[in-house]
């Protein structure tokens, strides 16, 4: 796309699409990152629960905090994915 000349009217639409593609890539990147963080936090919930039960330590507050953090990051992931999907559906990738 970068090699397309500015005066090439047959393919200039490809160059104008670069900012939209960058925005979509950023949304997908953040969505994936938040989903991975949510998965790690969910795994930590299980680890903390079992280790706390093994040592007979109260774990309710720690597990509750991890659960809320996991849900927040998962929701952010879904919101970013929905935003990217909306951009993809609203603005066609195909040039007519």
Question: Can you tell me about this structure?
Answer:
76% of the residues lie in helices and 0% in strands. It has 96 residues and is an all-alpha fold. It has one domain. The two termini are 18 Å apart.
**Percentage of residues in strands:** under 5%
The helix/strand series, from N terminus to C terminus, equals HHH
Total number of strands: 0
The helix count comes to 3
Q: What gross morphology would you assign?
A: rod-shaped
Terminal Cα span: 18 Å
Features of the shown structure:
mainly alpha; 96 residues; single chain
In short:
76% of the residues lie in helices and 0% in strands. By secondary structure, the chain is mainly alpha-helical.
Helix and strand layout, with pairings?
Blueprint: H1 12-16, H2 18-54, H3 60-90
Helix pairs in contact: 2-3
